[in-house]
User: Which sequence fits this backbone?
């Protein structure tokens, strides 16, 4: 297969591109390099550099491809509140443009990186895909709108699709340089530098932290499944960890002693709990997130430790 990975210079996309290349697929990456880095793109994989909301870029990117893994996004909840128009362009407009290009080029399968942000606030229990979506941020709203588009795509555009709703993905190569970065990338970097983190609110908010290799496995399963049919599935572990517990686990993994986190005001748009019901992906994709949090954190700490020592 020839597979386009959009956002393939970014965190999740580059891991997918790497795995596809390892299994022998021809891979091409499309990325505007606004947050992705060329160093993340596996060696030998060509890059189409540009903004997918432009028709010529989308057309060039899908040229000759059998399938598309669509990871390109501006993936920040807080960032989308600061800049809802930018979120709309990067997360929805670019997705529509890509879908049109797929239709015109006869691409057979598209796997979309959606987000648990489509659900909005939930109680402490797990959410399944039948839960009514109530996004609480422009980002969640854009992800949900794009999902609807991809759900219709098999019927309206003859492009078979699968939408995967990720729950808090973490792992090597996640960008830790912005205040919007994923909490694990921030906490690990701080702990390795002997610095205390900021916890928004009481730290009892919880997340279903999912290791990037498991997200890669879900994408491969979705690419290979016989019939996608626009189905939407959660991708998580189905286990919940509070932000306070997370910091304790990271302190332990980094051997950083006792650094007291500073608690500040809760973050605008922050969801209290987020936990996946994982049965649909198990049933339809045979997918199971296999990486325990301790194992994933250990691999993540090792990667950031090496990256920080290189930077010195
Ligand atoms: C994650 C995803 C987002 C979307 C969303 C769905 C990332 C980077 N973002 O947003 O794309 O899918 O899930 O709900 O994975 N926190 C602190 N201190 C910090 C940073 C974060 O206390 O320095 C807290 C934050 O307030 C939140 C939790 O950690 O309660 C997780 O924050 P996050 O930014 O990693 O991810 P989230 O859940 O906002």
Assistant:
């Amino acid at each position: 297969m020839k597979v386009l990975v959009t956002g393939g210079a970014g965190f999740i996309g580059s891991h997918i591109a790497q795995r596809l290349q390892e299994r022998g697929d021809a891979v091409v990456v499309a990325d505007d390099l606004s947050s992705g880095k060329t160093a993340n793109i596996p060696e030998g994989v060509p890059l189409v550099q540009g903004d997918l909301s432009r028709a010529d870029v989308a057309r060039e990117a899908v040229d000759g491809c059998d399938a598309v893994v669509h990871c390109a996004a501006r993936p920040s909840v807080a960032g989308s509140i600061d800049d809802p128009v930018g979120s709309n362009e990067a997360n929805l407009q670019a997705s529509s443009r890509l879908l049109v290009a797929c239709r015109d080029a006869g691409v057979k399968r598209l796997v979309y990186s959606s987000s648990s942000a489509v659900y909005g606030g939930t109680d402490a229990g797990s959410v399944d895909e039948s839960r009514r979506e109530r996004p609480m941020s422009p980002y969640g709203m854009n992800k949900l709108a794009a999902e609807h588009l991809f759900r219709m795509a098999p019927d309206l555009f003859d492009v078979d699709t699968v939408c995967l709703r990720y729950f808090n993905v973490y792992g090597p190569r996640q960008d830790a340089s912005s205040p919007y970065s994923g909490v694990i990338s921030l906490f690990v970097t701080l702990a390795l530098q002997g610095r205390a983190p900021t916890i928004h609110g009481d730290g009892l908010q919880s997340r279903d932290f999912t290791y990037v290799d498991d997200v890669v496995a879900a994408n491969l399963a979705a690419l290979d499944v016989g019939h996608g049919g626009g189905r939407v599935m959660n991708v998580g572990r189905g286990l919940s960890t509070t932000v306070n517990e997370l910091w304790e686990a990271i302190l332990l993994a980094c051997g950083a002693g006792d650094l007291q986190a500073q608690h500040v005001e809760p973050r605008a748009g922050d969801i209290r709990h987020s936990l996946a019901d994982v049965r649909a992906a198990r049933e339809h994709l045979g997918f199971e997130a296999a990486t325990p949090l301790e194992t994933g954190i250990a691999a993540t700490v090792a990667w950031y430790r090496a990256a920080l020592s290189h930077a010195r």
Notes: The mean pLDDT is 96. Residues 75, 77, 115-117, 168-169, 182-183, 186, 197-200, 205, 207, 243, 267, 270-271, 274 surround UD2 (CB under 6 Å). The first helix runs from residue 11 to 22. The CA atoms of residues 66 and 152 lie 19 Å apart.
